[in-house]
Design brief:
eight-stranded mixed sheet, alpha/beta, 12 helices, 6-phosphogluconate dehydrogenase C-terminal fold, Rossmann fold, 279 residues, single chain, globular, 53% helix
Length: 279
């Protein structure tokens, strides 16, 4: 198939590598508003050719939107206006606003909302890597609203990426992602800010930083261009989980003040149960 990827960054570029290697795609077309990204993608052989939006869609069998979610809100309806029988996917971390925006579109059936749960803290075409999606989960949303053949092609695409498929409605997807992804990034941003502030007075903090600290704040390196729109679109769900997170931190603080280390231990042991979920 000919696959057009709109947005040649970490996710779009990594998909390009793996779709070509797997044999799913015979040709990869790149579309990006930043010409330098396209030039880098050509040099890295992530894409075979770059085109403007209209031509890129016209020549594609599958169109993948891999841009920040705020840009998708305005661009996705325009893409849908241009398609005929092409399958259109997005890979955004929020889904409800996109689904609502397309609910009445006459070509809604050609669209499948997807969220491959994979990534790194890096961005841009230079961050694209092979095997990024291997063994990870991909959520397909509201598949009953999509044409049967569009869903089947989408399933084949993500199977070619070696991903495990899950199915949710868009509303439930955004709730669950607030808990398993979005709060992790806020926590990492907050921890990084806390340590950066303290480090002004205690210069040895970073000298003593271990692998545990590095893994905890790794997500704080993530691009604000990507994450601010996610928090904006999923604001209510993120606020809900953030309130719960703040409440839990307050419990730890209270136990430290009271020197109640028995209950402190109990909370840590309860947290250890996450091992049953994350192996």
């Amino acid at each position: 198939m000919t696959v057009t990827i709109i947005g040649i960054g970490l996710i779009g570029g990594s998909m390009a590598i793996s779709l070509k290697e797997s044999g799913f795609a015979g040709k990869i077309i790149g579309v990006d508003r930043i010409q330098d990204n396209l030039d880098k993608a050509i040099r890295r052989r992530l894409i075979d050719e770059d085109m403007d939006l209209e031509r890129g869609i016209a020549e594609a069998d599958v169109v993948i939107l891999a841009i920040p979610v705020d840009g998708m809100i305005s661009l996705l309806p325009r893409v849908m206006d241009l398609v005929d029988q092409q399958v259109v996917l997005d890979v955004g971390s929020t889904k409800y606003a996109l689904a609502e925006g397309l609910r009445q579109h006459p070509k809604r059936g050609r669209y499948v909302g997807t969220h491959p749960m994979a990534g790194t803290e890096n961005s841009g075409p230079e961050a694209a890597i092979p095997g990024l999606f291997d063994g990870r989960s991909c959520v397909l949303c509201d598949v009953a609203d999509s044409d049967v053949d569009a869903v089947e092609i989408t399933k084949k695409l993500y199977t070619a990426l070696n991903m495990n498929l899950l199915y949710l409605d868009a509303y439930a997807h955004d709730i669950h992602c607030a808990y398993v992804s979005h709060i992790s990034h806020i926590s990492s941003f907050a921890l990084a800010l806390t340590v950066l502030e303290k480090e002004q007075d205690e210069g040895r903090i970073f000298d003593l930083a271990s692998g545990g600290f590095g893994s905890s704040v790794r997500l704080a390196k993530s691009s604000p261009d990507m994450w601010v729109p996610i928090f904006e679109q999923n604001r209510d769900n993120v606020l809900d989980v953030l309130d719960e997170h703040i409440n839990t931190l307050a419990q730890f603080r209270s136990l430290l003040i009271k020197k109640d280390f028995n209950k402190f231990r109990m909370m840590i042991e309860k947290a250890n149960h996450i091992r049953k979920i994350l192996k």
